[in-house]
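Design request, C-alpha coordinates follow.
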Protein backbone atom coordinates (compact mmCIF):
# COMPACT_ATOMS: atom_id res chain seq x y z
CA UNK A 1 0.00 0.00 0.00
CA UNK A 2 1.47 3.38 -0.90
CA UNK A 3 1.41 6.25 1.60
CA UNK A 4 -1.40 8.08 -0.20
CA UNK A 5 -3.69 5.09 0.34
CA UNK A 6 -2.38 4.37 3.84
CA UNK A 7 -3.10 7.88 5.10
CA UNK A 8 -6.59 7.80 3.59
CA UNK A 9 -7.35 4.36 5.03
CA UNK A 10 -6.09 4.94 8.61
CA UNK A 11 -9.00 5.56 10.94
CA UNK A 12 -9.34 5.26 14.70
CA UNK A 13 -10.65 1.91 15.87
CA UNK A 14 -12.19 1.63 19.33
CA UNK A 15 -13.35 -2.00 19.12
CA UNK A 16 -10.93 -4.88 18.91
CA UNK A 17 -11.13 -8.67 18.66
CA UNK A 18 -9.57 -10.94 21.29
CA UNK A 19 -6.79 -11.97 18.89
CA UNK A 20 -3.31 -11.16 20.22
CA UNK A 21 -0.82 -9.15 18.18
CA UNK A 22 2.17 -11.06 16.85
CA UNK A 23 5.49 -10.17 18.49
CA UNK A 24 7.04 -9.21 15.15
CA UNK A 25 4.19 -6.77 14.53
CA UNK A 26 4.70 -5.21 17.97
CA UNK A 27 8.39 -4.82 17.20
CA UNK A 28 7.58 -3.14 13.86
CA UNK A 29 5.19 -0.72 15.58
CA UNK A 30 7.82 0.20 18.18
CA UNK A 31 10.48 0.49 15.47
CA UNK A 32 8.31 3.07 13.70
CA UNK A 33 8.14 5.11 16.90
CA UNK A 34 11.87 4.79 17.49
CA UNK A 35 12.60 5.99 13.94
CA UNK A 36 10.29 8.99 14.12
CA UNK A 37 11.73 12.50 13.77
CA UNK A 38 12.66 14.39 16.91
CA UNK A 39 13.83 17.92 17.69
CA UNK A 40 17.63 18.06 17.71
CA UNK A 41 17.64 14.23 17.29
CA UNK A 42 17.19 13.92 21.05
CA UNK A 43 15.02 10.78 20.90
CA UNK A 44 14.07 11.48 24.50
CA UNK A 45 10.68 9.74 24.43
CA UNK A 46 9.95 6.49 26.23
CA UNK A 47 7.40 3.86 25.27
CA UNK A 48 5.82 1.60 27.88
CA UNK A 49 4.24 -1.47 26.27
CA UNK A 50 1.27 -2.78 28.25
CA UNK A 51 -0.30 -6.17 27.48
CA UNK A 52 -1.59 -7.12 30.93
CA UNK A 53 -5.41 -7.03 30.81
CA UNK A 54 -5.72 -5.77 34.39
CA UNK A 55 -3.41 -2.86 33.65
CA UNK A 56 -5.23 -2.11 30.38
CA UNK A 57 -8.51 -1.91 32.33
CA UNK A 58 -6.94 0.42 34.89
CA UNK A 59 -5.52 2.64 32.12
CA UNK A 60 -8.97 2.77 30.50
CA UNK A 61 -10.34 4.23 33.72
CA UNK A 62 -7.69 6.98 33.99
CA UNK A 63 -10.22 9.23 32.25
CA UNK A 64 -13.98 9.33 32.55
CA UNK A 65 -14.49 9.39 28.80
CA UNK A 66 -12.44 8.70 25.71
CA UNK A 67 -10.31 5.82 26.90
CA UNK A 68 -12.68 2.90 27.54
CA UNK A 69 -11.60 1.27 24.26
CA UNK A 70 -8.33 0.30 25.98
CA UNK A 71 -10.21 -2.49 27.78
CA UNK A 72 -10.55 -4.42 24.51
CA UNK A 73 -7.11 -3.55 23.10
CA UNK A 74 -4.53 -6.31 22.72
CA UNK A 75 -1.88 -3.88 23.89
CA UNK A 76 -1.27 -0.26 24.67
CA UNK A 77 1.78 1.92 24.25
CA UNK A 78 2.12 4.77 26.72
CA UNK A 79 4.21 7.60 25.24
CA UNK A 80 6.22 9.69 27.70
CA UNK A 81 9.08 12.17 27.70
CA UNK A 82 10.96 14.37 30.11
CA UNK A 83 10.51 18.09 29.42
CA UNK A 84 13.91 18.53 31.10
CA UNK A 85 15.51 16.63 28.21
CA UNK A 86 13.80 18.52 25.41
CA UNK A 87 11.49 21.47 25.04
CA UNK A 88 9.99 19.66 22.02
CA UNK A 89 8.61 16.80 24.11
CA UNK A 90 5.00 17.24 22.95
CA UNK A 91 5.98 17.41 19.30
CA UNK A 92 8.43 14.50 19.59
CA UNK A 93 5.93 12.27 21.38
CA UNK A 94 3.19 13.18 18.88
CA UNK A 95 5.37 12.31 15.91
CA UNK A 96 6.33 8.98 17.47
CA UNK A 97 2.71 8.16 18.30
CA UNK A 98 1.37 8.86 14.82
CA UNK A 99 4.29 6.94 13.26
CA UNK A 100 3.29 3.91 15.33
CA UNK A 101 -0.33 4.32 14.27
CA UNK A 102 0.55 4.39 10.57
CA UNK A 103 2.76 1.33 10.97
CA UNK A 104 -0.09 -0.51 12.70
CA UNK A 105 -2.44 0.39 9.84
CA UNK A 106 0.05 -0.88 7.28
CA UNK A 107 0.16 -4.18 9.21
CA UNK A 108 -3.64 -4.44 9.11
CA UNK A 109 -4.05 -3.52 12.78
CA UNK A 110 -6.28 -0.90 14.32
CA UNK A 111 -5.29 1.82 16.75
CA UNK A 112 -6.67 4.76 18.67
CA UNK A 113 -5.04 7.61 20.61
CA UNK A 114 -6.28 8.69 24.01
CA UNK A 115 -5.01 11.98 25.36
CA UNK A 116 -3.70 11.91 28.92
CA UNK A 117 -1.86 15.22 29.13
CA UNK A 118 -4.17 17.85 30.67
CA UNK A 119 -6.99 15.29 31.08
CA UNK A 120 -8.36 13.61 34.16
CA UNK A 121 -11.29 12.77 36.36
CA UNK A 122 -14.06 15.08 37.58
CA UNK A 123 -12.56 15.02 41.08
CA UNK A 124 -9.48 16.82 39.72
CA UNK A 125 -7.20 13.79 39.62
CA UNK A 126 -5.01 14.07 36.54
CA UNK A 127 -4.85 11.12 34.14
CA UNK A 128 -1.07 11.48 33.98
CA UNK A 129 -0.83 10.85 37.74
CA UNK A 130 -3.07 7.80 37.49
CA UNK A 131 -1.03 6.35 34.61
CA UNK A 132 2.22 7.05 36.46
CA UNK A 133 0.90 5.15 39.48
CA UNK A 134 -0.25 2.13 37.47
CA UNK A 135 3.01 1.76 35.54
CA UNK A 136 5.58 3.16 38.01
CA UNK A 137 6.51 5.99 35.64
CA UNK A 138 8.86 8.51 37.29
CA UNK A 139 7.59 12.02 38.00
CA UNK A 140 10.25 13.37 35.62
CA UNK A 141 8.30 11.87 32.70
CA UNK A 142 5.28 13.64 31.23
CA UNK A 143 2.70 11.27 29.79
CA UNK A 144 1.33 12.58 26.50
CA UNK A 145 -0.94 9.77 25.35
CA UNK A 146 -1.83 6.12 25.37
CA UNK A 147 -2.20 4.30 22.07
CA UNK A 148 -4.44 1.25 22.00
CA UNK A 149 -3.70 -1.41 19.37
CA UNK A 150 -5.53 -4.53 18.26
CA UNK A 151 -7.18 -6.39 15.44
CA UNK A 152 -10.14 -4.19 14.48
CA UNK A 153 -13.60 -5.56 15.32
CA UNK A 154 -15.28 -2.80 13.36
CA UNK A 155 -15.20 -1.70 9.75
CA UNK A 156 -14.30 1.91 9.00
CA UNK A 157 -14.62 3.52 5.59
CA UNK A 158 -11.56 5.39 4.30
CA UNK A 159 -11.61 9.14 4.69
CA UNK A 160 -13.50 10.87 1.90
CA UNK A 161 -11.68 13.26 -0.39
CA UNK A 162 -14.90 15.28 -0.30
CA UNK A 163 -14.32 16.09 3.39
CA UNK A 164 -10.87 17.60 2.90
CA UNK A 165 -10.89 21.25 3.99
CA UNK A 166 -8.82 22.75 1.21
CA UNK A 167 -10.11 26.16 2.29
CA UNK A 168 -7.81 25.81 5.30
CA UNK A 169 -4.74 25.75 3.05
CA UNK A 170 -3.22 29.16 2.40
CA UNK A 171 -0.57 29.65 -0.27
CA UNK A 172 1.96 32.40 0.33
CA UNK A 173 -0.21 34.44 2.69
CA UNK A 174 -3.35 33.99 4.75
CA UNK A 175 -6.30 34.81 2.55
Amino acid sequence: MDFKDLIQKRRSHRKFTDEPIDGDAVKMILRAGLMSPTGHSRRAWNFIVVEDKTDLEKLADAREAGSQFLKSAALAVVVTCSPEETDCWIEDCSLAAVSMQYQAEELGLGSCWTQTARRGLSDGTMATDIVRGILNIPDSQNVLCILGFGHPADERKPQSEDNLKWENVHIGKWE
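Comment from the thread starter after seeing the answer: thanks! DSSP finds five helices and four strands in the chain.
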